[in-house]
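Structure in, sequence out. Go:
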């Protein structure tokens, strides 16, 4: 048995959480489709500054660095920025002092009595809910009344509590992955165009040609600090595009914030005639390469799976889950779940969520997720 295989065998059924140091919807979707729902932690790295610093350290200009070098540097910068943030939070939690008070309202006898008295009303309301509008369900669902109930509590010293839960914490690991993509055409590196004018000019240059897309990956084991970095590569051939097609594509806004000014999974997919290499790398994250990196760190890829139930199965079990609440920010696998409080919540695997986000004032769309607890 190889050293890596032996290490994996020793870990047993360890579960591994993956933190994605990116706000890319495409990367998140690729992972989710593969059964891995990542925690999103945007790195906020100053990419031009990171490249300049790396170039200065080598005594060269950024332009003299290859596309492969650049994406590797940026992937590492993103992953390590999130890693430093993770360590800060972990160290703060470890040094915390005080008491942890946990309340158990469902264990209160009065709550059970209240539940019995209202069960007929609640059952009637839930039956009515199943035939009503989805959004209306949330507003009218019965919620248990715990007012006036003496809720049983338990108080722990926060360090004792941490010690009791240490074995559980030790059985779970955290991996942090940072990625960056760059397109190379005729010897010139293309990142994100940011403006319609730049995007249109680049797409016109790319029309009918074949270029190479490089995607850097940096994976960090948060507990040990071990790091693996690799780069995927794929050749992409574009169709000949008319000026009208270029104009229409740029007006969608899709190519403005993606490397190379195109997307395989969106409007741009119709203009890509061929791919040689890893197609996942073109989407922003290579699953085969990431799996290899996970194994290099001594883990098994299935340890990352945290979404085993297909969305179609969830919809079959609860048709209401096919309808998303208005203005709701959701992830694959989300649906209506029944809580012990008596109310339906929108969440993932039975967990309700709290989202703190920044919205664009003009469109109302979420632009930055500051905090998400699910």
């Amino acid at each position: 048995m190889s050293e890596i295989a032996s290490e994996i065998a020793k870990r047993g059924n360890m579960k591994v959480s993956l933190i994605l140091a990116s706000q890319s919807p495409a990367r998140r979707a690729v992972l989710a489709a593969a059964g891995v729902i990542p925690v999103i932690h945007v790195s906020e790295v100053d990419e031009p500054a990171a490249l300049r610093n790396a170039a200065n350290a080598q005594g060269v200009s950024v332009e003299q660095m290859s596309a492969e070098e650049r994406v590797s540097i940026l992937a590492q910068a993103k992953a390590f920025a999130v890693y430093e943030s993770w360590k800060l939070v972990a160290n703060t939690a470890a040094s915390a002092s005080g008491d942890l008070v946990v309340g158990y309202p469902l264990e209160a006898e009065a709550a059970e009595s209240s539940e019995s008295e209202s069960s007929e009303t609640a059952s009637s309301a839930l039956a009515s809910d199943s035939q009503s509008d989805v959004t209306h369900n949330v507003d009218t669902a019965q919620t248990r009344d715990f007012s006036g109930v003496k809720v049983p509590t338990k108080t722990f010293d926060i360090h004792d509590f941490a010690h009791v839960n240490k074995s559980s914490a030790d059985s779970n690991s955290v991996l942090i992955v940072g990625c960056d993509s760059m397109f190379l055409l005729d010897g010139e590196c293309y990142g994100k165009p940011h403006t319609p004018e730049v995007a249109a000019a680049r797409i016109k240059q790319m029309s009918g040609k074949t270029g190479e897309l490089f995607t850097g990956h940096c994976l960090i084991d948060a507990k040990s600090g071990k790091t693996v970095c690799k780069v995927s590569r794929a050749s992409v051939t574009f169709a000949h595009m008319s000026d009208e097609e270029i104009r229409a594509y740029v007006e969608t806004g899709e190519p403005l914030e993606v490397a190379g000014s195109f997307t395989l999974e969106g409007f741009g997919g119709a203009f890509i005639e061929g791919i040689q290499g890893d197609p996942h790398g073109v989407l922003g994250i290579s699953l085969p390469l990431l799996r290899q990196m996970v194994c290099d760190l001594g883990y098994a890829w299935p340890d990352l799976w945290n979404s085993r139930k297909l969305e179609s199965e969830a919809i079959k079990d609860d048709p209401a889950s096919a309808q998303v609440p208005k203005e709701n920010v959701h992830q694959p696998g989300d649906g209506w779940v029944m809580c012990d409080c008596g109310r339906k919540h929108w969440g993932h695997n039975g967990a309700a969520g709290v989202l703190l986000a920044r919205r664009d004032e003009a469109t109302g769309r979420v632009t930055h997720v500051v905090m998400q607890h699910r």
